[in-house]
Amino acid sequence: MDLLYHESIYLEDMKHMTQERGHATAKEAASIAAQAEVGQLLLGHFSSRYKYKDLSPFITAAQTVFPRVVLTIEGETFYLGTSKK
Predict the structure, then answer these.
(1) Of all helices (H) and strands (E), which one includes residue 18?
(2) pTM of the model
(3) 3-state secondary structure of 59
């Protein structure tokens, strides 16, 4: 399965900040994943303003464009392929 890791520092309400700083929203990242026709989107690099908040709005926003979304949380491990080593 092809996958794309894409930063999504803000949600749509802060889109003006992404344009100023060269970043993307979750929805913009999902649009790129859809255009690339990948199998999975991994979202990460969230603004510190969301550090202690519920990050599920990132999944919700991205899934309006691309259905297979996973959040990457600092410290978590992702295994690619068929076996863990």
Answers:
(1) helix 15-21
(2) 0.86
(3) helix
Sequence-ordered list of residues with C-beta below 8 angstroms from that of 44, at least 6 positions apart, any chain:
5, 6, 7, 8, 71, 72, 73
Q: Is 42 helix (H, G, I), strand (E, B) or coil?
A: strand
Cα gap 79→30, rounded to integer Å:
21
Question: Which tokens hold the place of 71?
Answer: 């959040």
Closest-CA residue to 48 (of 22, 14, 4): 14
Rounded to an integer, what distance in angstroms lies between the CA atom of residue 61 and that of residue 71? 12
Q: What is the mean pLDDT of the chain?
A: 89
Domain boundaries, the chain: 3-71
Question: What number is the average pLDDT over the span 53-69?
Answer: 95
- How far apart, in Å, are the Cα atoms of 69 and each of 20, 21, 42, 85? 25, 24, 6, 24
